[in-house]
Amino acid sequence: MSGGERPDAGVRRTADILFTASIKADELRFEVAPENSVEFSGDASAESSSGSARTNLPDEVREHVTYRDVRIDYAIAAELASPDRDGDA
Fold it and tell me: What does the alpha-carbon distance between residue 46 and residue 41 come to, in Å, rounded to a whole number?
């Protein structure tokens, strides 16, 4: 998952790596709408996910619009894939 809802509590509880952040702003304005994504590579399992819960900020922001009383709660939860049983991993 990328950019959608935060990883659910179960995924966050069992994650091998968990990163969370929260920000609040009285006002937030974008001169250029950002493009963003999260990619899991290497040993990350398919259960890994990321996303945000937003208050007063749409998933796709618009340029030159001032958003007020903004809050973003963001989480990245990565679960590592199990190593191969035959020792190749």
Answer: 10
